[in-house]
Amino acid sequence: MIEVLIVTGPLGAGKTTAVNRLLKHEIALGRRVAVLINEFGSVSVDESLVNAKRPELAGIANLINGCACCSLRDDVVATLAAWCDQPVGERPERVVMETTGLADPTELLDLELDPLLQGRLRLVGCLTIVSCLGPLDHLRTRELLRRQIALASLIHISKADLDPSLAMAWESEIRQGFPHITLVQSRQGATPAEAMDPWAGDLRPLPEGRIKNDRPSFAEARSLTLRWDHPIDPTALESLFQHPPLGGELLRAKGICTFEGWPARNDGSDLWTFQVADGRLELAPMRALSTGAPAALVAVVIGIGLDSNVWQKALRGMERAPLGSRKKVVLGP
To answer: Is 198 helix (H, G, I), strand (E, B) or coil?
Structure first.
């Protein structure tokens, strides 16, 4: 049977970094591994990040504009069933399923019982990624985070290299509330050599009394996607996310861009990715896509109560069109 590992955790926790390390390890061992990515937006940034780094994957599927645990549940089943239908020797041996940070993984526990999948795949564990840079009180105030942690067979406290004291504080709090779960700190997605293998976990029933019965609601969260036509001003990007527009709560932002005045690197690519999480903006070089197709220059912003018109104008205002080129203008409502 195909083995499936769920990777979950809050928005911006570092799931894609962990997923890329998992995929690299499986490929190095000679296994056929596929990845199923679910993103809360109309464009998949994470798919581009994975595809640029792991062209040798046995399969890659991208589910967008919804949540794998509810609105896209049928698409998840159909994707996994299609991989199960492939001939032996061609189908994946293992699948990494990266959920959106707004997903409740408890709704994926019965995948093995679906008529299209029964007897064909096995859920081997749930790896939950939690950033130590997030507010510690989220363990008490955000029910979804508690669900994502309670389900885990293994927890990675990510970004421990950026603030070791905060990483220790998160570790202490999680161990106190969930002593039955194995936990390890990670740095750039890497864990100590002696750390538990995520594929060796198990999916335990949720401890009674720890989790409320009401499902978390994602109705308040919204995503905004904007495609750029030109390079952007790096200073304007930094300024926007250091001092975001007033109103609402910015949960996450990410995208792919080129920067005005920045030449192509030695690898021939001028693409860069940006990630905004825990109040921090991070940039990283991105290789050209393995397919040879041009990558979409795009920004995805996720939040609660954000003014979409204000954000569209701010994002479009970063573009620096070459002399003589037309630049799109966002009109008011």
So the answer is: helix
